[in-house]
Amino acid sequence: MFLPAQAPLELLQLDWLTAANVEVAILRLDQIDPLISGNKWFKLVEHLKAADRTGAEGIISLGGAHSNHLHALAAAGKRLGFKTAGLLRGHPQQTPTVADLQAYGMHLHWLGYGGYRARHDPGFWEPWQARYPTLHAVPEGGGGLAGALGCAAIKAQADAQLSHLGWNDYHGWWLACGTGTTLAGLALAEAGAHPVYGALAVPEDHGVAAQVESILQESGRRRADYELIDASRGGFAKVDSALLAFIAQTELDSGVPLEPLYTGKALLALKQQVEAGKFASGTRLVFVHTGGLQGRRGFPHNLPLS
Ligand SMILES: Cc1ncc(COP(=O)(O)O)c(C=O)c1O
């Protein structure tokens, strides 16, 4: 089984943090692997074990034409030698992500928009399971309890390095949320010891709160301390010039590359909350860099890749 490298944990040097005397260490999951990076491997690992247990030959899953999840899944399939199939939102289009999925040997099917919206309907998977009887189905974004359980290892990655920063503890986590799976995994791993703040990359009506609650309930854990904060800036994948300027400035000041859909919005939302006084002087937070940098290539605003 592929084992991701240890993600560096680095102190972020940014003037708005210094001004508020808030320390933020960034866990660079974007650096664990050139292709299977960010939170993706953690969300996939328990699904892969489940596929193995049932004797499946591979994985079928869903996503959009820029999906970081499908990209990591296809790369893992090629590297580890298992079959992959991807069900895509919308109509056929060529993006750098789609070109990679094809190059990694993923079988692609475009569902249109209505077809993709039906993904939570009972019976959605039946025709696909008939077509790919040897593939194990994984929900959108590698979600569900299995996805969350794999994310517990993210906490271990940070814990192992706190002493390098001279920290003996921290006050909470801050990360981008798409489905809420990674946040749920960290909340489970923390069992209430530290709060997990989720910066929502999607609008509130996407049901993240309900998905997080359902994972926590299914796990049987009672104690979990988390909070969801709107960071979507008007919609998923909606980008504005203030966001792009913030990403460019942050990269100049800290050397950390961000992308506009998840990590850029999450850090900008943190800045706003820090400036609004949400965190007392002396607070220490771990910000998770959830990766996704491959998605920058296909982005219309085309941020340069460093
Ligand atoms: C780069 C990036 N960050 C964060 C997320 C959100 O993770 P989750 O779906 O576990 O909330 C995703 C995917 O959904 C992502 O691609």
Automatic annotation (TrEMBL):
<feature type="modified residue" description="N6-(pyridoxal phosphate)lysine">
    <location>
        <position position="40"/>
    </location>
</feature>
<dbReference type="InterPro" id="IPR001926">
    <property type="entry name" value="TrpB-like_PALP"/>
</dbReference>
<comment type="similarity">
    <text>Belongs to the ACC deaminase/D-cysteine desulfhydrase family.</text>
</comment>
<feature type="active site" description="Nucleophile">
    <location>
        <position position="67"/>
    </location>
</feature>
<dbReference type="InterPro" id="IPR027278">
    <property type="entry name" value="ACCD_DCysDesulf"/>
</dbReference>
<protein>
    <submittedName>
        <fullName>Pyridoxal-phosphate dependent enzyme</fullName>
    </submittedName>
</protein>
<feature type="domain" description="Tryptophan synthase beta chain-like PALP">
    <location>
        <begin position="8"/>
        <end position="291"/>
    </location>
</feature>
<keyword id="KW-0663">Pyridoxal phosphate</keyword>
<dbReference type="GO" id="GO:0019148">
    <property type="term" value="F:D-cysteine desulfhydrase activity"/>
</dbReference>
<dbReference type="InterPro" id="IPR036052">
    <property type="entry name" value="TrpB-like_PALP_sf"/>
</dbReference>
<dbReference type="Pfam" id="PF00291">
    <property type="entry name" value="PALP"/>
</dbReference>
